[in-house]
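Entry for adenosine-5'-triphosphate complex. Fields follow.
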Amino acid sequence: MSMNSPVTEQSLLIFAHQLTRIYPMGRTDVIGINRLDLQITTGEMVVLKGDSGSGKSTLLSLLAGLDRPTGGQLTVAGVDLAAATESVLTRYRRSVIGMVFQNFNLLPTLSVMENACLPALLAGLAHHQAMVRAEDLLRWLGLDHRKDHLPAQLSGGEMQRTAIARALINEPQIILADEPTGNLDSRSGETVIELLAELNRSRQRTVIIATHSNLADATATRLIRLKDGEITGLA
Ligand SMILES: Nc1ncnc2c1ncn2[C@@H]1O[C@H](COP(=O)(O)OP(=O)(O)OP(=O)(O)O)[C@@H](O)[C@H]1O
Ligand SMILES: [Mg+2]
């Protein structure tokens, strides 16, 4: 592939070339991601490793369309994220990406069912269709008996599984998880990683997990180690 050609191979899902995110901080620049080259194909399960500050969350935010590159190219699922308009980015975040965070980010006044349904309703899906999808996901996630509970009434593992249901409701091609086990006990952490691996294996989702833990190493198709915003090799 030449440097400027569009992504043509169907299996090439993520294409980053010299991808850069610099945070201007007064007189100095802080490096988030530095001239990173990366290609990820459909169906991979990638684990991002690296010390605190190495750029893992920055890279995930760029891939999620939550943040924009300050340099280089980034094309995901055919969308040029460096050039996309806000409305294209909004649609992209809703339909292509499902995101899972360390702190779950559930809405505290909504039930498990309502949290799971919300992105589908925002995307314009009919209420009953969203419910049907959510019922399915919550059953798969072992949350049947927690549907009407509020987040504060759940264990950490149940909160994270609710967040996974929310991430999956719009059937995204790509799941991005930023330290998804960071606030969980080891048993719940293992469950969350197993669920992400299952999504990858049986449902052909591309999964990218940033984590300090080794729980996902065995199931990853690729380990990428970051240092100072650059790929330094395999973990
Ligand atoms: N909004 C921001 N403004 C300024 N600098 C930032 C911002 N976000 C991240 N950085 C800086 O960018 C670098 C990479 O941060 P990032 O959060 O991506 O690291 P990380 O690998 O996710 O770390 P951790 O393992 O602690 O989560 C760090 O030096 C950080 O201080
Ligand atoms: Mg981080």
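NOTE: The CA atoms of residues 36 and 150 lie 41 Å apart.
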